[in-house]
Design brief:
Elements: E1 14-24, H1 27-37, E2 41-45, E3 49-53, E4 63-67, E5 72-80, H2 83-96, E6 100-103, E7 111-115, E8 121-125, E9 148-156, H3 159-166, E10 172-180, E11 186-194, E12 202-206, E13 211-218, H4 222-234, E14 241-247, E15 254-259, E16 265-270, E17 282-285, H5 301-305, E18 308-309, H6 327-334
Parallel strand pairs: 1-4, 5-8, 9-12, 10-17, 13-16
Antiparallel strand pairs: 1-5, 2-3, 3-4, 6-7, 7-8, 9-13, 10-11, 11-12, 13-18, 14-15, 15-16
Length: 335
């Protein structure tokens, strides 16, 4: 399959995945989960919201928890380099007929709201108040001591449509999955796209969408990853461990996945590689089982089927269907 050459001079400069805004039904329970288990630091809080950051992050927040009646993801946030990029983004979206609006958001500079081609709600911001980096305050480490937000994965009803929206904005593909269609064409099942120089800032995979499958924080090493599992057990949260430990084929990361009190899925991982130089993306045929796991048990069916809905975006069925390699099928075949 041919992936177009990277767009090296996009209309505005997105620098990285920045923050996730979640609606949660019990603010205190969610705050405890993300501080005691994940190990995030509270930057600010009030009766309606909590703003958190990773231990090495100086930006005010990478996760916002907002009290709501039903759990969902309100927005995903990217950083752009300057306020001028916000204005350039607005001009770009106006030129292609994508509705966008400059708004005020707490603890953020100029912010632009829009929805992408599959209906995912996104915001761009160029600045946040600065807070002290806490990665050397080892005496205050809690839980997994998550260091920084890295990426998120989206279930997309049409992966190619999502790719064609984000590729012209300078997002480069590091890896992708495909299959050969009966008519001789190629079906695109997933794309790993990045702006910051490692394998991905965001991933689009085939499924009912748009939905947020998970968001991910980087840990220092495998010891912290296993320690997170021990802490979950000690806190009585062991059953919130949904998948792992294991190692992905795509990206090569060692991982665990947890579900928070509302069912939002978070990945804790380490060991990414650099993807800075211009190089072709790695292609994985859908029939290759090592794309999902180099080692570790397959994921349960709910890992493939359950995800967080976006506020104001009703999921629709995917254009493609696949028989997922679930743990249940693995046990049935080996039993």
């Amino acid at each position: 399959m041919h992936i177009p050459d990277p767009v090296l001079k996009p209309p505005f400069n997105v620098t990285r995945s920045s923050h996730v805004v979640l609606s949660v039904t019990d603010l205190d329970a969610s705050r405890a989960f993300y501080t005691d288990l994940v190990g995030l630091v509270v930057s600010d809080a009030d009766s309606e919201a909590v703003w958190l950051r990773g231990r090495e992050e100086s930006a005010h927040h990478s996760l916002v928890l907002r009290k709501g009646r039903t759990p969902n993801c309100r927005r995903l946030g990217f950083r752009v380099l300057t306020d001028d990029d916000i204005l350039k983004a607005k001009d770009h979206f106006d030129s292609i007929g994508v509705a966008s609006q400059i708004v005020d958001e707490p603890y953020q500079g100029k912010t632009l709201h829009f929805r992408d081609a599959i209906g995912m709600p996104v915001e761009l911001t160029a600045s946040m108040p600065l807070r002290e980096r806490m990665f050397m305050a080892y005496d205050a480490y809690r839980g997994a001591a998550a260091q920084r937000i890295d990426h998120w994965q989206i279930q997309a009803q049409n992966v190619r449509r999502a790719f064609e929206f984000w590729h012209p904005l300078g997002f480069r593909t590091s890896e992708y999955t495909y299959s050969d269609a009966a008519d001789g064409s190629v079906d695109l099942w997933g794309v790993w796209m990045q702006r910051k120089g490692n394998p991905h800032d965001q991933v689009f995979t085939n499924g009912p969408g748009p939905r947020l499958h998970h968001f991910a924080y980087l840990l220092r090493d495998g010891n912290d990853l296993l320690h997170a599992c021990d802490v979950a057990g000690a806190l009585g949260l062991g059953r919130r461990l949904e998948r792992g430990p294991g190692r992905h084929g795509i990206s090569g990361a060692m991982f665990v996945y947890f579900r928070d009190p509302d069912g939002h899925r978070i990945e804790l991982f380490n060991t990414h590689y650099q993807h800075i130089d211009l190089e072709p993306p790695v292609a994985w045929n859908l029939s290759n089982p090592r794309r999902a796991d180099q080692w570790g048990m397959p994921a349960r069916a709910k890992w493939f089927n359950e995800a967080t809905v976006f506020e104001g975006a009703e999921p629709t069925a995917p254009d493609l269907s696949v028989d997922a390699p679930t743990l249940e099928k693995f046990l049935e075949a080996t039993g």
